[in-house]
Amino acid sequence: MDEFEDSFFDAVKEIIRSIPAGKVATYGQIAKYAGNPQGARQVAWVLHASSRKENLPWHRVINSKGGISLPHGSGYETQKALLEKEGVVFGKRDGIDLKKYQWNPQQTYL
Length: 110
Description:
- This protein has helices spanning 3-18, 27-33, 40-54, 76-85, 98-101; strands at residues 25-26, 61-62.
- By secondary structure, the protein is mainly alpha-helical.
């Protein structure tokens, strides 16, 4: 890994840790704050590789449509239950209202 990737991955983990309970952030939003607006897939990779080891609140990261990206039977139900426990309400087709629940940090990472 080069220095940029290391700093990007570290920034992604720090940003994910900053998402408060009851709020969500999108993969693309996190990538943008971490300095790579095209890095949504790398955010997914960081989550996959580091969530358990680093105790990241992985369940607060969703897709840009306000939905859970994990398939049913492979984490979807767990992520939904964790978000509901934090007060996130799911609407039609299990969508999350990003206007209401998307994290919008006062401190910008840009």
